Amino acid sequence: MTRYRLGGVLLLLAGLYFVGEAWAATGWEGRPYRWTIDAISELGVPETRYAGGDAFASTRHAVMNVTFVATGVRVLLAGLVLAPFVPRRARRTVLALAVAYGLGTVVVGLFPTGMPSTRADVHGVGAVLTILGGSLLLLALAVSLSGTYRRLALVTAALGLLSLAGSACGMLGIGGFGLVERIAVYSVLVWQVLAGIAVLLGRPRADPPG
């Protein structure tokens, strides 16, 4: 398998994130989990919590957190594998944003939100790196691809802007937080799946020299 194809496989594996999140959600106990209101990270909280005297918990919090960590590691590997194929003028920016996105996602999984507050604070930093890093990564990729792959660049830009809009709505309190957060997060993941398909079904490219 060439380096280019390996990168495509790593991108395509982004689809497994949705499997992990859905599986984690089936372990929710207590009040119903509200997909349009509750944050994704609620599925990773290891503690039992209480609201109005009623207990609720994510019994499969480990599944969600492993999914976060695995997603982050996969992104880091994909970035390193595919970096040589990014136009040189944008390579450092794209790689830096991919690292921020990947590391942020790993941090989100290693430091679930909840209690103590210090753990939640670290989680928050990871979440910012993940969500904003992912949005900006797509926009940087759109610019770098615009000269040679215009259709892919347009799709990349559209999903990047959609992700950024979701982030902005979350910060401004517009709409249900769970919904707008998922718009921000899912847009980047969907792009990875589409890009992986494009790489695997497209014209083969030789590995860069050296």
Automatic annotation (TrEMBL):
Coiled coil: none annotated. It comes from the Bacteria. It comes from Janibacter cremeus. Keywords: Membrane, Transmembrane, Transmembrane helix. Pfam families: DUF998 (PF06197). This is Putative membrane protein. The chain crosses the membrane at residues 62-82, 94-112, 124-145, 152-177, 183-202.
